[in-house]
Amino acid sequence: MTDFVLPPPAIASVAVAGSAERFAVRRIFCVGRNYAAHARELGNDERDPPFFFTKPADAVVDSGAEIPYPPLTLNLHHEIELVVAIGKAGFRIARADALAHVWGYGVGVDLTRRDLQDQAKKAARPWDWSKAFDRSAPCGPLLPVAKSGHPEKGRIWLAVNGDVKQDGDLAELIWPVADVVAICSEAIELQPGDLIFTGTPAGVGAVQAGDRITGGVDGIGAIEVTIGQPRP
């Protein structure tokens, strides 16, 4: 038995739809600018190869959570995303084999401190402080592939206080799930427990303390979180 100088941290996990079991999260990878309309609203208009950034595993929180408005920002943005849960390890996975590595799918929100991201872009610095903060990756229950299949189209949407802000379709993904999994695996060996947030459609915008965020992906599931007051 291994002795640790401090108690090991709790295992980050995501709920599984229709089950008391949970999906242990190992790492979180996120794809930037994977919907053309969203790329254009951020001032880009090219089909570049997908690029990735990361969030810590313990950034996940369940649907239904209240998330304190984070520090160091005055411009917190919502980004609704299809989430891919990896269930089989793989390195340099061929595109034709990529979907066999997917355990299931869910609905997530990539919360972003947009003002910090804009500052980082201008200074050519990493995005970590804008993306990888506490509770920045709320994720709804995962639906196993046996129940969901591999979605190629379907509505993806997000509303703030009932007002729809993002409304797109998975068919608009520049790089579909198989491409994203295969390309990510060229850089790192994917492992069971990895999550991939696949990008967000157009319509991202700011939320404030007290706002209720709801969203979903047809055939996959839904998510709901509330933005609470900043921590004292």
Beta-strand share of residues: 25-35%
- What integer is the average pLDDT? 95
Note the total helix count. Answer: 5
Bulk shape: globular
Pfam family, one: FAA_hydrolase
Organism: Rhizobium loti (Mesorhizobium loti)
Domain Fumarylacetoacetase-like C-terminal: 28-227
Keywords: Hydrolase, Metal-binding
Task: Summarize the structure in words.
InterPro entries: Fumarylacetoacetase-like_C, Fumarylacetoacetase_C_sf. It comes from Rhizobium loti. Residues 28-227 form the Fumarylacetoacetase-like C-terminal domain. With 232 residues, the chain is an alpha+beta fold. The chain has a domain at 13-60 and 80-150 and 171-202: Fumarylacetoacetate hydrolase, domain 2 (Alpha-Beta Complex), CATH 3.90.850. The protein has helices at 36-41, 114-122, 128-131, 145-148, 177-187; strands at residues 13-15, 22-24, 28-32, 51-55, 60-62, 66-68, 76-78, 80-86, 102-109, 112-113, 137-139, 143-144, 155-160, 163-169, 195-197, 205-206, 212-217, 221-228. The chain has a six-stranded mixed β-sheet. Strands 6-18-17-13-14 form a five-stranded mixed β-sheet, with no helix packed on it. A three-stranded antiparallel β-sheet has the order 10-7-16. Strand 17 (212-217) and strand 18 form a beta hairpin.
